[in-house]
Amino acid sequence: PSVTSSMKSLCEHSSIKFTSSITTNGYLLSRSLFLDYLHSGITNFQITIDGLRHDLTRIACDGSGTFSTIINNIKDIHDLSNDYKYNVTLRYNVLPENQDTSWYDYLGNLVKDDDRFGILIRPVSDLGGEKVKYLERYSAKDWKELLNFHIQKALAAGLKVVNLSEKRPFAKACFASFKDSY
Predict the structure, then answer these.
(1) CB count, 10 Å around CB of 74?
(2) Measured between alpha carbons, how far is 85 from 43 in angstroms, rounded to an integer?
(3) Is 104 in contact with 156 (CB distance < 8 Å)?
(4) For residue 62, what is the enclosing H or E element?
(5) Average per-residue pLDDT in the chain?
């Protein structure tokens, strides 16, 4: 946050609009750390969570699951007063073997009616590394056909679907794939 705070201060001094975003798995994003980030000028957060089967693909170094910690952090952030202005995008990575759409209902019960939260639905992509080579992934054609199904399930659960508001030319590219992203 100190680098972000410094940049925010420089921008304010020069009458330049400052925005900052982070992408995280949310595991360490406690309410107090979230507020530190928010006060430093980070107002856009993307938290990657892989649905109700998250613990099968996202495990901690000690082999334990991470889902309940991340969900508790999301609940704590969601419970902040509406006076706090921020956007949280919950990125849901869909694998072919994970078609349990009850995730949308679960998430809808957690954050619906809060415009600060939205869901971004994406297929798992190969952005490098060895582990992804062992995952079954969608072809572009299959995913295009399935995406609308997932969007409809998310909308029925009362979620704001970020996929529907993407207008930037590189919106479908993951920032993790850009060499200058931090």
Answers:
(1) 22
(2) 7
(3) yes
(4) none
(5) 84
